[in-house]
Amino acid sequence: MMYFSYHPNFEKQFDKLKKKYPSLQKDFDVFCLALEVNPKWYPPNTVQVDWLGENVFLPFFKARKFPLTCMRLANSGLRIVYAYDSENDQLEFVEFIEIYHKNNQDNHNIELIKEHYTGVTDLGS
Fold first, then answer.
1. Which of 6, 68, 74, 116 is the most buried (most CB within 10 A)?
2. In this predicted structure, what is the pLDDT of residue 78?
3. How far apart are CA 10 and CA 78, in angstroms?
């Protein structure tokens, strides 16, 4: 079973983007369904975030170029950064960290990840 949680930073960014792009909620729901099937997706659509340091134990992924119904967002550079934790086949956790447009932010916030996830080994705790 897949469980989703949301970092406060993600919620703030998502609400801001949702005001600008009303169909984003529907597109995000479809994205979550796709994550339930394959949380790591496949390159080049999803890449694992590297260079986080030795104290960050969870794998982090950045999704890009995923289907969007909003034509203004389609192929626009929207990015979603999330952590994935699967200790067993029965329980899987995804925590969404960031959602941003690449025109507004160059890259994911490495400091945010390091600050909040150093030493974290289970999102379900």
1. 68
2. 85
3. 13
| CATH number reported for the structural domain that contains residue 18 in this entry | 3.30.2310.20
Nearest to 81 by CA among 119, 125, 122, 112: 112
Count of structural domains, the chain: 1
Q: Are 48 and 73 in contact (CB under 8 A)?
A: no
Q: 85-99, pLDDT tens digit by residue? A: 877 667 788 999 999
Does position 121 have pLDDT exceeding 50, yes or no? no
End-to-end alpha-carbon separation of the chain, Å? 16
Q: Is the residue at 122 inside a domain?
A: no
Decide: 92 and 2 in contact? Cβ < 8 Å: yes
Question: Residue 108: its pLDDT value, please?
Answer: 82
